[in-house]
Amino acid sequence: MSADQTPLSFAWRIALFYSAIFIVLGVSLPYFPLWLQWQGLSAFEIGLVTSVPLFIRIAATPMIGFAADRAQSVRRIVVIAAAVGLLSACILMASSGVWMILIFFTLFQIASLALMPLAEVAAMQGVRDKGLDYGRMRVWGSVAFIAANIGGGLIVAASGNGSILPLLIGGSLLSLLAGWYLPNERRSVARPVGKMSWRDVKEALGHRGLLLIMLAGGIIQASHAVYYAFSAIHWQAQGIDGRWFGILWGVGVVAEVVLFAYAGRALARVGAVTMIGIGAAGGILRWGLMAIDPSFGVLLGLQLLHGLTFGATHLGTVHAIQERVGADRAASAQALHSALSSGVLMGLTMLLAGSLYGAFQGVSYLGMMVLSVVGLVLTLWVAYRPDFSSPES
After folding, report:
1. Domains (ranges, CATH) in the chain?
2. What CA–CA distance (Å, rounded) separates 121 from 182?
3. CA distances (Å), 257 to each of 64, 137, 289, 290, 341, in order?
4. Residues 217, 333: contact at Cβ < 8 Å?
5. What is each CA distance from 199 to 126, 180, 195, 322, in whole angstroms?
6. Neighbours of 1 (CB within 10 A)
7. I need a surface site. Which of 143, 172, 299, 301 has the fewest CB within 10 A?
8. What's the rounded Cα separation, in Å, for the pair 87 and 94?
9. Which residues contact 69 (CB under 8 A, 6 or more apart)?
10. Given a cut of 60, is residue 338 above it in pLDDT?
11. Are 258 and 143 in contact (CB under 8 A)?
12. How far apart are CA 316 and CA 238, in angstroms?
């Protein structure tokens, strides 16, 4: 076995890739809405710009997943997507007006966010073929996210909102370089991947409970819409110093990091479906309290619940899907879940968030609490139906 094929080398290459793509997320999620506001966009237009790319991903992300399955090499597709993301970010920097910004931000989002399901496929290959711990690879993405939150916040506070796009360009370049460095191993599959079709996808989704799992996880993740699009804007309106924005986001991701560090033990103890339910319960508490504009100290504490609302939900959903599909459908299933969760559900909720925030400001978090309740109900439905909850059914 060559040095670049050892489990340790494989794990570090995946961790490096997670780190690069999460630097982009760590800048874009908290701060890009501030750039849009700086460009003169209204709350509705901000919701429009941030939601439209998610709808386009409904078709684009599964197509990228199918391409990865056919190619049997994730790295090739990753490099192409990362290059498109970098080029789009460069053009976006020179864009102005809501429609021009919408077009190039959509291209940037499709390319950049498509890297996530591909990273999951590469990581889960290491789990399956090399006995690696998923959480210990994924945790480095969270660490990079925290660094980007805090570092980005300091840069934006010092240099202004115009510095956000150069930060995104730098992160996109790192994603391209890290994608090129990914392990180039071909996956072992049960049958020729080139025959992948929509019929295969339908068969995979035909597993009892799989679609409910995707819906539950997706709805809980979509409940972050107001937080993702308007938290920085709302904190700014409350008079919170901009240097604290990155720290507030970073505190949430620290909780996520701790969870991912112990992901193997947590999943072994409670199971994937229960992890999704824990995420939903965290959302009910988190969004309900954020709707009343809590004091800064309480807000700081509530950010720790991100470890549940995002972290537990993500871990549970990814593992529950992986338990129910074969290796020959892994990329397609994860890409379809990404399209449903980050596409349909997040897109609709982001549009709703723009209207809600424009009318109700912080009270709009109550709508996100309702979504968490729906996610919990769906999770309980799966958990208490043996024919739905068993991976072997």
Report:
1. 8-181+207-389 (1.20.1250.20)
2. 12
3. 28, 11, 23, 22, 21
4. no
5. 27, 32, 10, 19
6. 7
7. 301
8. 12
9. 193, 196, 328, 329, 330, 331, 332
10. yes
11. no
12. 35
Tokens of 191: 């049958």
Are the beta carbons of 181 and 122 closer than 8 angstroms? no
CB 52, CB 108: distance < 8 Å:
no
**Alpha-carbon distances of 137 from 7, 24, 84, 117, 332, rounded to whole Å:** 11, 18, 25, 14, 21
Question: Is pLDDT at 328 greater than 80 in this prediction?
Answer: no
Please report the beta strands in 273-343, taking only residues with DSSP state E, as ranges in sequence order: none
Contacting residues for 73 by C-beta, under 8 A, at least 6 apart: 184, 186
Contacts (Cβ under 8 Å, ≥6 apart) of 159: none
Distance CA 257, CA 26 (A): 14
How far apart, in Å, are the Cα atoms of 207 and each of 244, 321, 323?
Answer: 45, 10, 11
What lies within 8 Å, CB to CB, of 89 at 6+ separation is: 108, 165, 168, 169, 172
How far is Cα 313 from Cα 306, in angstroms, rounded to an integer? 10
Residue 204 identity: A
Residue 116's identity, in one-letter code, is: M
Q: If 0-12 CB within 10 Å is exposed, 13-18 middle and 19+ buried, where does residue 237 land?
A: exposed
What totals of helices (H) and strands (E) does the chain contain, helices first? Answer: 20, 0
Distance CA 256, CA 258 (A): 5
Positive or negative torsion for Cα 363, 367, 372, 374: positive
- pLDDT of 288 above 90: yes
pLDDT digits (tens, 9 = 90+) for 232-247: 899 988 888 888 888 8
* CA distances (Å), origin 381, targets 87, 346, 376, 384, 385: 44, 22, 9, 6, 6
Residues 6+ apart with CB under 8 A from 51: 346, 347, 348, 350, 351, 354
